[in-house]
Amino acid sequence: MAKKSKSTKSTKKAKATKKTAKKKSARKPSAAFMRPVSPSPALAEFIGSKAVPRTEVTKRLWAYIKKNKLQDAKNKRMINADAPLKVVFGGKSSVNMFEMTKLVGKHLK
């Protein structure tokens, strides 16, 4: 009786591991969000006068809102503006978080 060679089994395993070894490429962020934008003088009071990406603008604005506890206690989506923020929000005393990004966009170049 002839014995089967083990080499065919090892090559099948090697092929299987090659297929699973492929790595998925990481998702790249959109260039439009990462492009630095210049804030208006009113917005620069909160985020600084240096040009930063749009994502960083939102992050810094939220840090200011949470630091000063301007988020509404009952409805967390609403932001109650203090005097300096009213200038950025176009004179509105209360805006929702989705409207905030629209209003802040007017202060970016």
What do these coordinates show?
By secondary structure, the protein is mostly helical. It has a domain of 72 residues: SWIB/MDM2 domain (MDM2). 50% of the residues lie in helices and 9% in strands. It has a two-stranded antiparallel sheet. The protein has a two-stranded antiparallel sheet with strand order 3-4. It is elongated, with a radius of gyration of 27 Å. The N and C termini lie far apart (82 Å).
CATH class membership of the domain at 34-105: Mainly Alpha
Task: Kindly state the percentage of residues in helix.
Answer: 40-55%
Number of DSSP helical runs: 6
In CATH, the architecture of the domain at 34-105 is Orthogonal Bundle
What is the mean pLDDT? 85
Classify the secondary structure makeup into a structural class. Answer: mainly alpha
Could you tell me the number of beta strands? 4
**Numbering strands along the chain, what is their spatial order in the largest sheet?**
1-2
Quick take:
The chain is mainly α and 109 residues long.
List its traits.
single chain; 109 residues; mainly alpha; MDM2; two-stranded antiparallel sheet; 6 helices; 50% helix; 9% strand
Secondary structure elements and pairings:
Layout: H1 7-20, H2 31-34, E1 36-37, H3 41-47, E2 52-53, H4 54-67, E3 78-80, H5 83-88, E4 94-96, H6 97-105
Antiparallel strand pairs: 1-2, 3-4
